[in-house]
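Incident log, structure service

09:12 report received: a user says their structure output differs between two submissions of the same chain.
09:20 pulled the input from the user's history:
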Amino acid sequence: MNTILECSHVSKRFGKKTVLQDVNIQIEPGHIIGLLGPNGSGKTTLIKLSCGLLTPSEGDIRILGKPVDPSGKLKIAYLPDKNSLSDWMQVSQIVDMFHDFYSNFDRGKAYEMLKRLDIDPKLKLKTLSKGTREKVQLILVMSRNADLYLLDEPVGGVDPAARDYILQTILTNYNEEGSILISTHLIADVEQMLDRVIFLKEGRVVLDSSVDDIRTQNRKSVDELFREVFTC
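09:34 re-ran on a clean worker, output below:
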């Protein structure tokens, strides 16, 4: 089985501040993994390193055994934690742009999801609510036939009803031969969809475990263990 993402002894510094330190992670196909930790723990930095937006200060990152390069980036679908789309564009124009830019983008799938979520493709992004803009951005990411989906706080800024839509969209539309790494601090909302969790604390991996092992060995839910590990 090919390893999709491998981080070996990865550290990242910004000036004198160390954000990640000696991170070792392997992600195989067919998993939904929670990258969990409080704000400032290094989750976003690790995701940006994994998709090639940042380079490690130390260590090595590989996608399907190769360094992160333009061909490797095509295998990654990345959802940033902030809206990165142009507000003046119509939703249909953004779909066309993604279709032109990514060879693994499925335009038909995007329009199916837009219809299912009752989003009019003719509307400009700036006329949509924040929650609907979040859904559009997610639809674009999940319409790609990628090997690895890197989702940074996909439910962080929306109301509980929108969270349910977003999580269901993720579960029903990703390439099941690939894997999802989902970053969040809202553990209770995502716990039921995860089969593995990675806890980041002050830039270090403090736990890497299957959800089943947490429940059987620790006799706790992931949310309960998270609160215990990250108690103030």
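09:41 both user submissions now match this output. Likely a transient worker issue. Closing.
09:42 reviewer note: The longest helix spans residues 160-173. The mean pLDDT is 90.
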